[in-house]
């Protein structure tokens, strides 16, 4: 028996209780269904088992003493990593019923929208990186929110916008279209089956997580005054962690989408609800904007590095660019020689990432509106020239500009057939635009990711690459990534936390590939961020000696900022007997929950 980092006792108990309660959570796999059957009537639920499978192994993180895990199976079938125990249990149940990795990721994403609406939900959007075991291809789907066609750029350039104009930051939601497209390509179970776990949690109640309670308290003034979002406040106070909360309006919305597909969201009553809610906040979204929304295929960014192929997000995400710039600037040997999380290692990476942040502002935008030579931008030649300018004894003064991006969630799933899904979704800032529909979900404020006027002036630009435009998709930090070796996936990961996504995921990748750290340890290890506001945000757990070393190099370190930039990851390895070994890294920073069977 091996001892694994486990979920907290309360969280794991809640997850398993929910798993037992979910209809049809037996392990027999139903027959595969075609995409055309997505709206078919769901089959009768299988009998509910008396207990979850004995070899369901909790992995990842906890904020309580580790639990003794059941004996590991000789061969792992599938795995899930999300930021919440309820969502992980729902996604794992889908895999146990024969669903694909994409099915499980869809179910998990919908569940996160119920239990962690601070981060994502039906009113948001995202990106997906998917490995198809049959074709042995990695595909990327962009379901990022788009600006309404009638957008007036000047309404966005000056920040912050007035409270009663928060809707001007709302983009056309892409999550439901993205889920529908993923399901059509890689789904096995009916869509009604995939929404059931999230809808049941919303209808019957779910435990409020510690992270959710923190987020609620940070937004207490708004929540206590929001007539449509009183579910998280009782008797004039924010509900405590562990309290059961219900959202029946959202449950009804989910079930309708499950029965009717994406048409139910982009047309009819739900669409009218979205428009009325958005326009009350001065958004210029129209019925045609919703009807015309499209999910886009993107060509992945790829690079060969130290025997691995890293496949990640292209623009309009900047996260993949930052990751590739880092890889092309440094060799494994050079980084390993510095030592993991030493002062020298941390400083070198911080200087690397400051350059990438500047590249994002100056050079990246929506490919439909901006011509970018990304290959040249991340080329080893350009990166070597930049590396030569980095001093190991002094720090580059960063431009100081405001950033408010703070939300987002990431999900990784691996199924028994070897398919892998790495999916990031978001409503942008905490609770998005703080506009709540009658259908029980929040609208995003994703257009805040367009470059503000102050930032453009700081960089000497006028209408730069990420200038607000009608129909454009704003630059993002999201970085869903899959790493392969000899053509086979060995690692899938991504993260949340706004601008901390790219820095966090890149650090986890290097910890695993350079220093050989198991992904659970790589995810939980101390991390840093190079914020556009300057300085270096860093986890205090890195140690006093390292902090002092960084200060000697001119770094202005700040350990006071809470770090909830959660990374979720799954590694896929072949054991000595040829059996597949799956290891999950679920980030403790948001109470992550990883499950393996």
From TrEMBL:
Region (Disordered): 30-58
Reactions that this protein is recorded to catalyse: an S-substituted glutathione + H2O = an S-substituted L-cysteinylglycine + L-glutamate; an N-terminal (5-L-glutamyl)-[peptide] + an alpha-amino acid = 5-L-glutamyl amino acid + an N-terminal L-alpha-aminoacyl-[peptide]; glutathione + H2O = L-cysteinylglycine + L-glutamate
Name this protein carries in UniProt: Glutathione hydrolase proenzyme
Keyword Hydrolase: yes
UniProt: L-glutamate binding residues: 144, 426-428, 449, 476-477, 498
Gene: ggt
GO biological process, one term: glutathione catabolic process
Record keyword Acyltransferase present: yes
EC number of the protein: 2.3.2.2, 3.4.19.13
Source species of the chain: Polyangium fumosum
Coiled coil start-end: none
């Amino acid at each position: 028996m091996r001892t694994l980092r486990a979920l907290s006792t309360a969280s794991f108990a809640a997850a398993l209780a929910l798993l037992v309660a979910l209809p049809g959570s037996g392990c027999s796999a139903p027959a595969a269904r075609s995409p055309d059957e997505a709206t078919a009537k769901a089959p009768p639920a299988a009998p509910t088992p008396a207990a979850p499978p004995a070899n369901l192994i909790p992995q990842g993180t906890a904020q309580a003493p580790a639990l003794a895990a059941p004996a590991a199976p000789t061969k792992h079938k599938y795995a899930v990593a999300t930021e919440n125990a309820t969502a992980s249990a729902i996604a794992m149940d889908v895999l146990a019923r024969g669903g694909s990795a994409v099915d499980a990721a869809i179910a998990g994403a919908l569940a996160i929208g119920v239990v962690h609406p601070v981060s994502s939900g039906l009113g948001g959007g995202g990106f997906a990186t998917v490995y198809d075991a049959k074709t042995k291809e990695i595909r990327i789907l962009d379901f990022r929110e788009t600006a309404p066609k009638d957008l007036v750029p000047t309404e966005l350039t000056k920040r912050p916008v007035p409270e009663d104009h928060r809707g001007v930051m709302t983009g056309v939601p892409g999550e439901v279209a993205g889920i529908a497209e993923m399901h059509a390509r890689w789904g096995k179970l009916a869509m009604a089956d995939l929404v059931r776990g999230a809808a049941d949690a919303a209808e019957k109640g779910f435990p409020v997580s510690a992270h959710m309670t923190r987020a609620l308290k940070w937004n207490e003034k708004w929540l206590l005054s929001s007539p449509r979002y009183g579910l998280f406040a009782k008797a004039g106070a924010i509900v405590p962690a562990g309290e059961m909360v219900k959202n029946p309006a959202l449950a009804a919305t989910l079930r309708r989408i499950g029965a009717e597909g994406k048409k139910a969201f982009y047309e009819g009553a739900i669409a009218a609800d979205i428009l009325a809610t958005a326009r009350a906040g001065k958004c210029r979204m129209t019925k045609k904007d919703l009807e015309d929304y499209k999910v886009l295929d993107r060509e992945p960014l790829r690079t060969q590095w130290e025997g691995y192929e890293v496949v990640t997000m292209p623009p309009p995400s900047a996260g993949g660019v930052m990751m590739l710039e880092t890889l092309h600037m440094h060799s494994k040997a050079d980084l390993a020689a510095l030592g993991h999380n030493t002062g020298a290692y941390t400083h070198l990476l911080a200087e690397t990432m400051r350059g990438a942040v500047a590249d994002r502002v100056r050079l990246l935008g929506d490919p439909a509106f901006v011509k970018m030579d990304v290959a040249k931008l991340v080329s080893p030649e350009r990166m070597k020239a930049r590396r030569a300018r980095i001093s190991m004894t002094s720090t580059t003064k960063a431009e100081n500009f405001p950033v408010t991006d703070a939300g987002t969630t990431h999900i990784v799933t691996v199924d028994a057939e070897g398919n892998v899904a790495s999916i990031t979704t978001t409503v942008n800032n905490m609770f998005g635009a703080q506009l709540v529909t009658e259908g029980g979900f929040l609208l995003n404020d994703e257009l805040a990711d367009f470059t503000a006027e102050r930032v453009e002036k700081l960089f000497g630009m006028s209408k730069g690459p990420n200038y607000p435009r009608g129909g454009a998709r704003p630059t993002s930090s999201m970085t869903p990534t899959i790493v392969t070796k000899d053509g086979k996936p060995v690692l899938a990961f991504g993260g949340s936390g706004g601008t901390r996504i790219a820095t966090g995921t890149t650090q986890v990748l290097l910890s695993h590939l350079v220093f050989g750290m198991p992904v659970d340890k790589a995810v939980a290890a101390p991390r840093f961020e190079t914020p556009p506001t300057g300085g270096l945000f860093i986890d205090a757990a890195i140690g006093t000696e390292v902090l002092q070393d960084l200060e000697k190099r001119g770094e202005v370190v700040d350990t006071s900022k809470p770090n909830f930039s959660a990374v979720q990851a799954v590694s896929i390895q072949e054991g000595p007997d040829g059996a597949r070994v799956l290891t999950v890294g679920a980030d403790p920073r948001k109470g992550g929950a990883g499950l393996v069977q």
